[in-house]
Design brief:
Blueprint (H helix, E strand, L loop, with lengths): L3 H21 L7 H38 L3 E4 L2 E4 L5 E2 L10 H29 L5 H32 L7 H38 L2 H39 L7 H10 L2 H9 L17 H41 L19 H6 L2 H36 L9 H12 L2 H25 L1 E2 L3 E2 L8 H25 L4 H4 L7 H6 L6 H10 L4 H9 L2 H8 L10 H62 L5 H21 L14 H7 L1
Antiparallel strand pairs: 1-2, 2-3, 4-5
Subcellular location: Membrane
Keywords: Coiled coil, Membrane, Transmembrane, Transmembrane helix
Membrane topology: Multi-pass membrane protein
Length: 669
């Protein structure tokens, strides 16, 4: 089994990262380099989280072997036996041979650092560039990142000059490398505590509120009102940009040198706008016949960038609106079915996507009613209590992990108890649950935060390239300090435990933090205590209240603005619901009309054709009679009347639609 666990986890983590990237990215439309770079960043970060428990169990076994070798011992099979105490050091099932983990961590760590500090920032600027050639995009990316890279080079150069001039410092290459790692981890730890303090409170609270049907429905109405405003703004912005594209397309004709750039911009526009602009084109006019002021290439690059952004934003809001409508309709169905006497879940609208037959066979309407109306609220409550318990343990351990005598960190207590009995399965499970919960609290916050429209991870393949690359940068910067914080909580880091024991392979590549004592003994120990203040601020929604005061509408139950947006969203959902009901009723009537009169019309048409054949044969035998043309014309008139009856659609005299808004009736028709 040596190395088998490592190989299985490497494969599993790859497919996990690929699945998440497929959910948020679009493999068909986005550039392959963007997909590969983001996948590599996510994969390496998830891999560190999953492999670190194996490193801990292997380190504990190696410590046991060192303790055995330092005293008289006897070798016996797969374990080592101490002669005086008869202690046994069993080899863990996931044991990784010596020499593999240091190389593995070194490759993973430095690859992730190269991605987050050099490659991904450059690719961000490249992806947002509006250039029409690869050379132009690279030039724009280099110019935008000149300040970014120059700042770091200036700081690093000043530090090297200070070390070279000061005679008290005699730093070697390994120490300089450790200082660079410490600087990167310090920046990551600063951001890590902020995100962790939010996730420790918000994740249990979101699951607790998930058991409240009324709360979820009100929040969905609130989101609908905000999304409708954003959707209208995106449509208006797209119309303005398309108007500029139309003017540019009309001014720059087919023989203009910049016409290729205009054609590239037109290809990025939606199909309906391309057809509309194509009808107004007059390519037979030469551009030099009129004394017009033509746009420059720089202005076309800017316009190209605006087109890409506006089209992506418009498509995203359209998809999110449809998803939010489905969610609102489903929550309303749950509220209605809670009082159902038949205990069978009834949907207002049928699912637009074909359901899996296996799921449909087991997940019957009765099972769905029991799950949605009875079991799911209690399941969410129990899960929220469990997550809240984990959050309390994490907060307590973050404030007390520096204490070694006595050991106050609960995670360190659990690991040390298992280390005494060498229960490697328990050690790996405890380590995995701990670091997995910390990762969920941090990574879920990265997926939730939104920086206006510049950074926003939207599911259902609606995330743009810039946001995907930015998320990869955040993951690569947050994961190394997250793992160091976990090792500190479990006292597996010798810097925290103050024991002269064998360190983990992950800690060994980080180097000794004793080079910078003010960071090792100060910032790394006392800064994580700030998580208590952040948790209190998140619990009382201080950040939400501040954003609400600044004019950014946030969901707050005691705010008039929130209640107004809830009412507005409720009316929007009602309007969309009536519109969809009218569409389904029209489709049902059309289907019933075809089923009822389709066979009759076919038989009528067959009789008419048969009559025409008989009359035509009769006219051939009696050419002297002029009545045959009238018979044929009457048959043709009958066929025309039948075809008109087939194409006709029955009128909808619905009493409820009389009071509806005329605009809604037009859109419904």
């Amino acid at each position: 089994m040596s190395g088998a666990a490592l190989g299985l986890e490497i494969v599993f983590v790859f497919f996990l990262a690929l699945f998440l990237l497929h959910r948020y990215g679009d493999f068909k439309k986005q550039h392959r380099l963007v997909i590969i770079a983001t996948l590599l960043a996510w994969y390496l970060c998830f891999l560190i989280v999953f492999i670190l428990p194996l490193d801990v169990s292997t380190t504990i076994y190696n410590r046991c072997k060192l303790a055995v070798n330092s005293s008289p011992a006897e070798s016996n099979g797969s374990y080592v036996t101490l002669a005086p105490s008869k202690q046994k050091c069993f080899k863990p099932w996931s044991y990784i041979p010596n020499g593999i983990m240091p190389i593995f961590w070194r490759v993973v760590y430095w690859t992730s650092q190269f991605l987050t500090w050099i490659l991904l920032p450059f690719m961000q600027s490249y992806a947002r560039s509006g250039g029409f050639s690869i050379t132009g995009k690279i030039k724009t990316a280099l110019i935008e990142n000149a300040i970014y890279y120059g700042t770091y080079l200036l700081i690093f150069g000043a530090f090297l000059i200070y070390v070279a001039v000061n005679p008290n410092f005699n730093l070697q290459w390994n120490q300089l490398q450790t200082i660079g790692i410490a600087a990167a981890n310090t920046w990551g730890l600063f951001l890590l505590v902020l995100l962790l303090g939010y996730g420790l409170v918000e994740i249990p609270r979101s699951h607790w509120n998930g058991a409240k049907r009324g709360y979820l429905l009100m929040k969905t109405y609130f989101k609908a009102a905000k999304l409708m405003t954003e959707k209208a703004d995106a449509e208006e912005n797209l119309e303005d940009i398309m108007e500029e594209v139309r003017k540019v397309s009309e001014s720059i004709k087919y023989n203009h040198p910049l016409r290729k750039c205009v054609d590239t911009i037109l290809k990025k526009c939606p199909t309906e706008y391309q057809e509309r602009m194509g009808r107004n084109m007059d390519d037979y006019e030469d551009f030099d016949e009129r004394q017009n002021s033509y746009p420059s290439e720089k202005s076309l690059v800017k316009l190209h960038k605006q087109v890409i952004y506006s089209v992506q934003r418009h498509r995203r809001t359209q998809v999110q609106w449809q998803i939010l409508l489905e969610q609102a309709f489903y929550l309303e169905d749950v509220a209605k079915n809670e009082t159902s006497a038949t205990r069978q879940f009834v949907h207002t609208f049928h699912s637009q996507e074909p359901e899996n037959k296996i799921i449909q066979y087991f997940y019957t309407p009765t099972v769905e009613w029991y799950w949605e109306c009875l079991l799911r609220p209690w399941f969410y409550r129990v899960l929220a209590v469990v997550l809240a318990t984990f959050s309390v343990i994490v907060v307590w351990s973050e404030c007390t992990f520096f204490s070694t005598k006595p050991v106050l960190s609960l995670f360190a207590v659990f690991i040390q108890l298992a280390e005494k009995t060498y229960n490697y399965i328990y050690i790996e499970m405890a380590c995995f649950l701990t670091i997995f919960f910390l990762s969920i609290c941090v990574y879920s916050t990265v997926f939730r935060i939104r920086v206006f429209n510049y950074y926003y991870l939207a599911s259902h393949h609606q995330t743009d390239a810039y946001s995907l690359l930015f998320s990869g940068m955040l993951f690569c910067r947050l994961t190394p300090p997250l793992c160091l914080n976990f090792l500190g909580l479990t006292h597996m880091d010798s810097t925290i435990s103050h024991k002269n024991t064998q360190p983990t392979a992950y800690t060994s590549i980080m180097g000794s933090m004793r080079v910078l004592t003010f960071i090792a003994d100060g910032f790394y120990i006392y800064y994580p205590m700030l998580v208590v203040i952040l948790c209190i601020a998140t619990y009382f929604s201080l950040g939400t209240r501040c954003l609400n005061l600044l004019g950014f509408q946030q969901f707050m139950g005691d705010s008039e603005m929130t209640s107004d947006l809830i009412d507005e969203g409720k009316e929007l959902i009602k309007r969309e619901k009536r519109k969809r009901q009218r569409q389904e009723e029209g489709e049902n009537r059309r289907r019933e009309w075809k089923e009822r009169y389709g066979n009759r019309d076919d038989s009528t048409r067959n009789r008419a054709v048969h009559t025409d054949q008989k009359e035509s044969s009769f006219s051939e035998t009696n050419t002297s009679r002029p009545l045959s043309k009238y018979t044929r014309s009457n048959g043709r008139t009958e066929r025309d009347r039948i075809e008109l009856l087939q194409d006709a659609e029955p009128l909808d005299f619905n009493a409820d639609s009389i009071n509806d808004d005329p605009l809604e009736l037009d859109s419904g028709r």
